[in-house]
């Protein structure tokens, strides 16, 4: 009779880039069941967001995630500008889209690099990271920041992108396009990648629909939950977007969806740069007076739909709820690795592109009651 | 226990996006948001007052399991019928 045994991976492990504890119940080398333990990167962001003025809260919202900083900003601003009925000029709407799409390119290239590393192809890892570095230079040129772009305010942006800025962005994208086409061809035809990805971590279309999956994971199962298509916002209303869809639902399909989205994002950046009204500038002052109201809004982050619920009472945020895409996809993680060989688990988990620090953002709770903790108390682990 | 399944049944064909716990002046409310292919989210607001137990919607929307489990862990509201009830998702048990 076979006995299953527990095989732990994480929270610190060479194959994981973020703290996640995988408890795999294995029979031989086959995974029979999986349990995911989280909480190692918990920061209590939602609780910290309570009782802040909207413009102050925006700073914390932007720092929820290091990779999709702009998409959190856009979801929050879409919500607040929606219920406060703030109109934004075309230039601001398009500038936000340019940063968001560059963010998608850099996120997907980072992901592709790490995925290749998991597959043992470290040269491709270096190649993808080299191209990503150039996108970070574009962020530096456009917003002044390489990671947390922090480029927007309620109703406006912090700076007007000049013609030279936009030309630099376009020429950088041009310079990496040829290399990326060749990497994409390699990923599609490389025997090691095909053997280790095709048919692995299979998610059916029915499961993807039942469990409400989002982003490239859903699009690889032929389900289009793209917020940019279903509910266009800001500059996306002015742009033509083709959704990248595949039907296979395995790790290889998810890889190709993300790589093809890089080219689609380049196309969107080009359209947005060409449509920005020439000679216009962003409004000088942000909208300060947001006294009351509540609303919901979503943006399409690199990992999928990013949902924000914001309630403002007496000029301060009473509740900000963030539902990040990884939380929506988390429910499928154990299912995706069940039946897989233990050596394929890092590849399957990586193909789902988890963003753990982004997901663990809720409240600090003690004795069943939520409390506001200072960063010093959080660091020490006890409340004064 | 607050009964809500009858009301949530109307959203069977939609995708559950989020469940939000909101502490309001008149008591605690839980907001359910759903999406179809239209630009606006559908919203169902349930006022639970001082109730500590709310019917789980996992029989209709299985992806509610983690979203409800998160509320149980953070705010102590229990969702009888949720497969994650009693399990830890984010925080230590103590």
Concise account of the structure shown:
The complex is a heterodimer of chains A (384) and B (94). Chain A is 47% helix and 15% strand. Chain A is built from 16 helices and 10 strands.
Strand/helix succession of chain A: EEEHHHHHEEHHHHHHEEEHHHHEEH
Helical content of chain A (DSSP H or I, runs of 4+)? 40-55%
Approximate shape of chain B: globular
Number of domains of chain B: 1
- Gyration radius of chain B, rounded: 13 Å
- Nearest-integer average pLDDT of chain A: 87
User: What's the level 1 CATH class of chain A?
Assistant: Mainly Alpha
Number of strand segments of chain B: 3
Describe the SSE topology.
The complex is a heterodimer of chains A (384) and B (94).
Chain A: E1 5-9, E2 21-27, E3 30-37, H1 45-48, H2 54-62, H3 69-83, H4 90-118, H5 122-143, E4 152-153, E5 156-157, H6 163-189, H7 191-197, H8 205-210, H9 215-219, H10 227-230, H11 251-275, E6 293-301, E7 304-313, E8 316-323, H12 325-329, H13 333-337, H14 345-351, H15 356-359, E9 364-366, E10 369-371, H16 375-380
Antiparallel strand pairs in A: 1-2, 2-3, 4-5, 6-7, 7-8, 9-10
Helix pairs in contact in A: 2-3, 3-4, 4-5, 4-11, 4-14, 5-6, 6-11
Chain B: H1 5-8, E1 15-24, E2 27-35, E3 42-49, H2 64-75
Protein traits:
heterodimer, A: 384 residues, alpha+beta, Cytochrome-c3 Hydrogenase, chain B, 3-stranded antiparallel sheet, 10 strands, B: 94 residues
Tell me what the structure shows.
The complex is a heterodimer of chains A (384) and B (94). Chain A is of the alpha+beta class and 384 residues long. Chain A has a single domain (44-325), classed as Cytochrome-c3 Hydrogenase, chain B (Orthogonal Bundle). In chain A, 47% of the residues lie in helices and 15% in strands. Chain A has helices spanning 45-48, 54-62, 69-83, 90-118, 122-143, 163-189, 191-197, 205-210, 215-219, 227-230, 251-275, 325-329, 333-337, 345-351, 356-359, 375-380; strands at 5-9, 21-27, 30-37, 152-153, 156-157, 293-301, 304-313, 316-323, 364-366, 369-371. Chain A has a three-stranded antiparallel sheet. Chain A has a three-stranded antiparallel sheet with strand order 6-7-8. In chain A, strand 2 and strand 3 form a beta hairpin. Chain A is globular, with a radius of gyration of 21 Å. Chain A starts with a strand and ends with a helix. With 94 residues, chain B is of the alpha+beta class. Chain B has one domain. Helices cover 17% and strands 29% of the residues of chain B. Chain B has helices at 5-8, 64-75; strands at residues 15-24, 27-35, 42-49. Chain B has a three-stranded antiparallel sheet, covered by helices on one side. The longest helix of chain B has 12 residues, at 64-75. The radius of gyration of chain B is 13 Å and the shape is globular.
């Amino acid at each position: 009779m076979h006995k299953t045994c527990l095989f732990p991976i994480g929270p610190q492990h060479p194959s994981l880039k973020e703290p996640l504890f995988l408890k795999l119940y294995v029979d031989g080398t086959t995974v029979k069941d999986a349990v995911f333990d989280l909480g190692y990167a918990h920061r209590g962001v939602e609780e910290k967001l309570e009782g802040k003025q909207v413009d102050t809260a925006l700073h914390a919202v932007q720092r929820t995630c290091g990779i999709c900083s702009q998409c959190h900003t856009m979801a929050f601003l879409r919500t607040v500008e929606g219920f406060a009925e703030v109109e934004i000029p075309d230039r601001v709407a398009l500038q936000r889209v340019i940063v968001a799409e560059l963010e998608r390119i850099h996120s997907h290239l980072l992901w592709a690099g790490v995925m290749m590393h998991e597959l043992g192809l470290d040269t491709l890892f270096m190649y993808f990271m080299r191209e990503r570095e150039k996108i970070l230079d574009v962020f530096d040129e456009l917003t002044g920041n390489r990671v947390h772009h922090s480029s927007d305010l309620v109703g406006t942006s912090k700076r007007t992108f000049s013609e030279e800025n936009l030309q630099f962005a376009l020429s950088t994208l041009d310079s990496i396009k040829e290399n990326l086409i060749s990497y994409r061809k390699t990923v599609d035809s490389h025997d090691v990648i095909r053997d280790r990805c095709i048919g692995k971590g299979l998610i059916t279309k029915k499961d993807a629909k039942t469990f409400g999956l989002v982003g490239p994971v859903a699009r690889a199962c032929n389900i289009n939950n793209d917020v940019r298509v279903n509910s266009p916002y800001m500059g996306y209303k002015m742009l033509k977007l083709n959704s990248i869809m595949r039907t296979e639902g395995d790790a290889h399909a998810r890889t190709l969806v993300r790589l093809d989205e890089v080219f689609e994002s380049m196309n969107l950046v080009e359209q947005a740069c060409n449509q920005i009204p020439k000679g216009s500038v962003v409004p000088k002052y942000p909208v300060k007076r947001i006294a009351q109201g509540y609303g919901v809004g979503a943006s399409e982050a690199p990992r999928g739909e990013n949902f924000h619920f914001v309630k403002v009472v007496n000029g301060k945020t009473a509740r900000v709820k963030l539902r990040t895409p990884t939380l929506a996809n988390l429910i499928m993680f154990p299912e995706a690795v069940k039946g897989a060989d233990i050596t394929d688990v890092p590849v399957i988990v990586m193909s789902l592109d988890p963003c753990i620090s982004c997901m663990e953002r809720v409240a600090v709770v003690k004795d069943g009651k939520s409390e506001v903790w200072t960063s010093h108390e959080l660091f020490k682990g006890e409340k004064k | 226990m607050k009964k809500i399944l009858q009301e949530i049944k109307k959203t069977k064909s939609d995708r559950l996006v989020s469940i939000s716990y909101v502490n309001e002046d008149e008591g605690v409310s839980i907001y359910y948001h759903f999406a179809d292919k239209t630009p606006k989210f559908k919203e169902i607001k349930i006022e639970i007052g001082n109730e500590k137990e709310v019917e789980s919607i996992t029989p209709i929307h299985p992806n509610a399991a983690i979203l409800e489990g998160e509320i149980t862990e953070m705010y102590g509201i229990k969702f009888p019928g949720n497969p994650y009830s009693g399990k830890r998702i984010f925080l230590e048990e103590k």
